[in-house]
Structures are given as structure tokens and as C-alpha cells.
Amino acid sequence: MDEKEAAGVFQALANADRLGVIRALVVAGPDGLSAGDIAIEVGAAPSRASFHLAALADAGIVERERQSRSLQYRLSFERLGALLNFLMEDCCGGSAQLRACTTGCSCGPAPEKGR
Amino acid sequence: MDEKEAAGVFQALANADRLGVIRALVVAGPDGLSAGDIAIEVGAAPSRASFHLAALADAGIVERERQSRSLQYRLSFERLGALLNFLMEDCCGGSAQLRACTTGCSCGPAPEKGR
DNA sequence: CTTTCATTTCAATGATTCTTGAAGTATTAT
DNA sequence: ATAATACTTCAAGAATCATTGAAATGAAAG
């Protein structure tokens, strides 16, 4: 992932509705949620929800699959993880200082360079 | 950090020039860089660099301090770490699945909820 | 085959964001 | 004081993004 691609993924995260979608999809688990349920969950009209889902799908953050009438969306943890890796490693050089500020992660010592 | 604030910080990261600024500031270390040096580093005209630096400063990602004639910018690792925490913990509920996709971090087991 | 349901796409509009060059502000040197 | 340096702010225009409601598509049911 290069800077331009990462910028696109960050752009996809740069919206409260879309972060709400992600939160809902994490809660929903591996089965995901239908577009309609997501729309209700974030309190947006169908076309608005669809617009935001398309932005997330374009960025690769969500994947969709038709399930009879409805489209089921689920989160791409791989993609989200790749973005975090870009920021931590490629952009910030695995900075120990940044690592230290990331309390959500019970990290051991910084990994060796080039692993 | 709530969804709206996080969206603002993601917006600040949603630009290749600004990611370049961050990269340059990580490399520069704790002393940071002057606005002029940053402009050269990312290959942008002064006013354009200033515009992007203002976006980063508004989002709290960089801090600045006058040093004689020039303004010295440095990265706020705290702020960047807080964003990563928001995504990992508040938004994604500390998801083991996301953790597993974040190879940059040599994590042990997921931290207990509410630590 | 027509209707219904679920969702997307379209079109129009308004709001933000980005870029550029010119003008303005702060700080130091002569 | 004047000039030079280092930035920022402003103004105008182009580009992108978001919201709304209406129309179109795809899948299933009657």
C-alpha cells in the first residue's frame, strides 16, 4: 500500500456515518449485515447508506455478496489491518514512540526491522 | 474521541501530501522540521505546504512552535496513537480478528476489556 | 407476467477541499 | 527605518464529496 492508496482508505474512514457502519459490522460479526439493516443502524436513508457503502467498498474496507433479495456486507479486517500496518510501519517506520502511544495493543518490544 | 472527531482526524490523513509530511516528521525525530524544509521534502509550494500543515495542526496531529524566523513542526505521537486506539478499541471493540491482521504489532493475547 | 421488496444509480444541488499566485504578518539583519 | 527571510492568509476557480428524492435494476412471490 503506497501513500496514495492509503490516503484513499483514510478518506473512506473520514466520515461519521461510515465509521458507524464499521462499528455495526464489527458487532454483527462474520455474517455481516444487509444494506437495509445498516441503513437503519446508522439512521440514514437507503440511497445515502448505499452511497457510503459504495465508498467503503471502493476502498476495499467492506465486501458484499448477494443473499437472495438483499446484499450482505461484511468488514474486511485484512484491509483495515493493512492500513494500520501502513501507518505504523511504512509511514511511521515502526516508531517506538507511536507504539508506546497505542495503549489498545499490549505490545511487547518493537519487532525487529524487516520481519 | 468520538466518531465525529475521529472522522476529522482521518480526513487529515486522507491526502498523500500530508502523509508525506508525517513520514518526514517521523524521520526528523523529536526536533521536527521547519515549514520550509517540509515544503521542500514533499515538493510543494510554500502556500500549499502551509495549507496542509494547517489541516494537520487543526486535527491535532502536528504541533508547531516558532523558532526565530521559522516555524518548527513536530508530530504528535499521542494524537496518532489515540486515533489508532479509537479504531482498534472504541470502533472495532478490540476485535481479535483485526488484531490478528495487524502484523506490525507483535501483540500478545488481547488485553482484558476495560483496562 | 405483474407486483412487491431490497438496493443501487441518477440528477440536481449545496458544501468542502485543493491549488495557485498575490498580498499580508512576524522576525531578524543592515 | 529598510530590506530580506520565512511563513501564513486571502481570493478565485477547479475538483471532489455528500444529500435528497425519483427512477432503474434484480430477485422472489402471487
What does this structure look like?
The structure is a homodimer of 115-residue chains. Chain A has helices at residues 3-13, 16-28, 35-42, 46-58, 77-91, 96-100, and strands at 33-34, 62-67, 70-75. In chain A, strands 1-3-2 form a 3-stranded antiparallel beta sheet. The first copy, chain A, has 115 residues and is an alpha+beta fold. The model of chain A is unreliable at 106-111 (pLDDT under 50). In chain A, helix 2 packs across helix 3 (35-42). Chain A is elongated. The interface between A and B is large, with 48 and 48 residues. Chain A binds a DNA duplex (30 and 30 nucleotides) through helix 3 and helix 4.
List the helices and strands and how they pair.
The structure is a homodimer of 115-residue chains.
Chain A (H helix, E strand, L loop, with lengths): L2 H11 L2 H13 L4 E2 H8 L3 H13 L3 E6 L2 E6 L1 H15 L4 H5 L15
Antiparallel strand pairs in A: 1-3, 2-3
Chain A binds a DNA duplex (30 and 30 nucleotides) through helix 3 and helix 4.
At a glance:
In chain A, 57% of the residues lie in helices and 12% in strands. In chain A, helix 1 crosses helix 5 and helix 3 crosses helix 4. The radius of gyration of chain A is 16 Å and the shape is elongated.
Query: What order do the strands of the largest sheet of chain A run in, or round the barrel if closed?
Result: 1-3-2
Radius of gyration of chain A: 16 Å
Oligomer: homodimer
What is the overall shape of chain A? elongated
Instruction: Average the pLDDT over all residues of chain A and give the rounded result.
Output: 91
Q: Structural class of the secondary elements of chain A?
A: alpha+beta
Helix fraction of chain A, binned, reads 55-70%
Please describe the biggest sheet of chain A, giving its number of strands, its sense, and whether it closes into a barrel: 3 strands, antiparallel
For the termini of chain A, the CA-CA separation is 17 Å
